[in-house]
Design goal:
The complex is a heterodimer of chains A (114) and B (110). Chain A is an all-beta fold. Helices cover 0% and strands 55% of the residues of chain A. In chain A, strands 2, 4, 5, 9, 10 and 11 form a six-stranded mixed β-sheet that branches. A five-stranded antiparallel β-sheet of chain A has the order 1-3-8-7-6, with no helix packed on it. Chain A is globular. With 110 residues, chain B is mainly beta. In chain B, strands 2, 4, 5, 6, 9, 10 and 11 form a seven-stranded mixed β-sheet that branches. In chain B, strands 1-3-8-7 form a four-stranded antiparallel β-sheet, with no helix packed on it. Chain B is globular and about 40 Å long. Chain B starts with a strand and ends with a strand. The chains are: A mainly beta (114), B mainly beta (110).
């Protein structure tokens, strides 16, 4: 069935270290993947996305890697800062929905230790 | 500021009461969405509107109705609230790519 799952529910890192948040997806028909960040009391906020014709995309301090062979998505945050503490969601948009539907994983909570 | 605005921010209802959650976006997006978020879970789609004049069921539509009032506004109605509908509700909109979310309505049904 459709599912987007995360390997770890929580991740704790030291300030300044790199963070890696992993995500497995099950729908081979998905062609668009997104990472969102959700801070307490707020709605999810877009971080970075990637299409299935790419395997890596970089933003400011963030990189998303896509491995279609094993249906795995990861978010790397360089030089993690206290402001990065939040819940991170991976999401996918299957082709058969025409891009209208987005399916979310359960989320990983990132704690940044000062 | 451009974005998605949801009202109210908080609401407490008794079982059986009705209410409407309001959502408006000023980004001229065609598609609008209602999600619910429960502890330890991701967001689950309740209803969506691909464009003005259309609405479709999502993953968990039971107990809810929606109205796409115009291109800007998409409301979610609970006709007879139940404790299982205690949740945080998020409205979102998009045009091509990522969703843009409001800051949510926290609803408690007692």
């Amino acid at each position: 069935g459709e599912s987007v799952g995360l390997h770890l529910p929580t991740l704790s890192v030291q300030e300044g270290d790199n963070s890696i948040i992993n995500c497995a997806y099950s729908n081979s028909a998905s062609d668009y993947f997104i990472w969102y960040k959700q801070e307490s009391g707020k709605g999810p906020q877009f971080i970075i996305d990637i299409r299935s014709n790419m395997d890596k995309r970089q933003g400011q301090r963030v990189t998303v890697l896509l491995n279609k062979t094993v249906k795995h998505l990861s978010l790397q945050i360089a030089a993690t800062q206290p402001g990065d503490s939040a819940v991170y969601f991976c999401a996918e948009s299957p082709l058969y929905t025409g891009g209208f539907k987005t399916i979310f994983g359960a989320g990983t909570r990132l704690f940044v230790k000062a | 500021n451009a974005g998605v605005t949801q009202t109210p921010k908080f609401q407490v209802l008794k079982t059986g009461q009705s209410m409407t959650l309001q959502c408006a976006q000023d980004m001229n997006h065609n598609s609008m969405y209602w999600y619910r978020q429960d502890p330890g879970m991701g967001l689950r789609l309740i209803y969506y509107s691909a464009s003005e004049g259309t609405t479709d069921k999502g993953e968990v539509p039971n107990g809810y109705n929606v109205s796409r009032l115009n291109k800007r506004e998409f409301s979610l109605r609970l006709e007879s609230a139940a404790p299982s509908q205690t949740s945080v509700y998020f409205c979102a909109s998009k045009e091509d790519s990522p969703l843009h979310f409001g800051n949510g309505t926290r609803l408690t049904v007692t």
